[in-house]
Specification:
Elements (H helix, E strand, L loop, with lengths): L1 H13 L1 E7 L8 E8 L6 E7 L7 E4 L3 E6 L4 E9 L3 E5 L2 E6 L6 E6 L3 E5 L9 H7 L8 E2 L7 E7 L11 H7 L3 E8 L3 E7 L13 H19 L2 E9 L2 E8 L5 H9 L11 H12 L5 E6 L7 H16 L2 E8 L1 H5 L5 H21 L1 H4 L5 E4 L4 H12 L6
Helix pairs in contact: 2-11, 4-5, 4-11, 6-7
Length: 401
């Protein structure tokens, strides 16, 4: 019996395993996982148990991750199941295989295949909330424009010549008709330049898998970036993973640029809770990822844990950014507002009381920012998109200056 098991083990080690995932590679969508086993030997392999090793946080919605291998000699066997993944980088481990002897008197466990990593993009949130749509209905979809005297791309009017105007823009027909020098006036296109700096350190992962502060923040950035890029605005992104790990996506525009933003958000993987280099990364991203002139910089961070020294360094780097004509706003996912989502009944009521009391302490700790004119907007899971969009629309006028 042991001899037969040893033969099966040799055959098992020769088995070639291929795992493929088909789907949109966007979080929450249905994906099909296909396991293909190929037996290159002349020995059949029947009744061997296997268990796949997907990420524990993924939801299995159809089929099973375990089964029995029934592979004929020189043959192939295929198994399928369906999952709903979470955003970010996730690893599938090796397959666990259990080989049992006759009558199950003994068994051997081994692993086959190779571990693989897959990236899943954040889902872009449909803008369905009435309040948000009301705020945006007056906003110019498409290219945003501002009436500024100068040379642009679109002719708007004819006016009297003023000493200093360029003679190249004289309107000769109007000049001949009126007997006075007339010049063409154009409308300058005002493109907003928005730079998102996302704190993706480990404190942003607190919460239930699929509904953490980081995941809500990434969805908000993806949604707003697509809206801005569709308008013709410029968008940049810096992702800080904690410690000395970060990724910068420089300012870019065009509808296809959203793919680069989504790829960067899909590459997020936990690294560290250490945020001491966050001010340095902000400064570096402003140097490398922005353009000269007005930029709207939105820092998304939970500002946790409380660190007065870090706060002062953030104030210093933001003050320097403002000197370079950048407007900086901090959007802070507030942990208690995310925790209350998982509670109900009496527990939910008690947590709301706790949230109200802790809010006072948080406001006091953030005075180091507000006293220097740096707005910090505390947000929950349901208002993060709306808060950021209202801030962007309120500041859009300055993009033309």
């Amino acid at each position: 019996m042991r001899y037969m098991v040893q033969v099966k083990i040799k055959v098992l080690n020769a088995i070639k395993v291929k795992r493929t995932i088909t789907g949109s590679f966007i979080e929450g969508d249905e994906h099909k996982v296909t396991l293909t086993f190929h037996n290159p030997s002349y020995f059949p392999l029947y009744g061997v148990e296997f268990i796949d090793n997907p990420p524990k946080t993924f939801k299995i919605i159809e089929g099973s991750i375990s089964g029995l291998l029934l592979i004929p000699p020189k043959g192939t066997s295929v198994f399928e199941y369906k999952i709903k993944p979470l955003m970010g980088v996730h690893s599938f481990g090796k397959l666990k295989v259990v080989l049992r002897g006759p009558l199950s008197l003994f068994y051997i466990e081994t692993y086959i295949g190779n571990p693989l990593e897959y990236k899943f993009k954040p889902k872009i949130i449909p803008l369905r909330e009435r309040r948000l749509l009301t705020a945006l209905v007056t906003a110019p979809f498409g290219t945003s424009k501002a009436r500024i005297t100068g040379v642009g791309q679109e002719f708007t009017d004819v006016r009297d010549y003023v000493p200093g105007d360029d003679y190249r823009y004289l309107e000769w027909k109007a000049t001949a008709r009126t007997g006075k020098l007339k010049v063409k006036e154009f409308e300058l296109e005002a493109h907003l330049r928005a730079i998102f700096i996302l704190d993706a350190s480990k404190t942003m992962y607190y919460g239930i898998a699929g509904n953490t502060k980081l995941e809500y923040s990434a969805r908000a950035i993806a949604t707003i970036s697509k809206l801005l890029l569709d308008r013709g605005d410029y968008v940049g992104l810096t992702i800080y993973l904690g410690g000395d790990k970060y990724k910068i996506v420089p300012l870019g525009h065009g509808r296809v640029y959203i793919n680069r933003i989504l790829d960067a958000l899909a590459s997020i993987k936990p690294y560290s809770e250490d945020k001491r280099l966050l001010p340095h990364i902000i400064a570096k991203s402003l140097i490398k990822g922005t353009a000269w002139g007005y930029n709207l910089v939105i820092l998304v961070t939970d500002l946790e844990p409380y660190d007065e020294e870090l706060y002062r360094e953030l104030v210093d780097v933001i003050a320097k950014a403002k000197e370079l004509r950048n407007t900086v706003c901090i959007i802070s996912p507030y942990t208690p507002l995310f925790e209350v989502e998982i509670l109900d009944g009496f527990s939910r009521a008690l947590h709301r009381i706790y949230t109200a009391k802790s809010w006072e302490a948080r406001e006091a700790s953030l005075k180091i920012f507000t006293s220097k004119g740096i707005p910090v907007l505390n947000v929950g899971p349901h208002d993060i998109v709306e808060v950021i969009m209202k801030k962007i629309e309120a500041l859009r006028f300055h993009a033309a200056l």
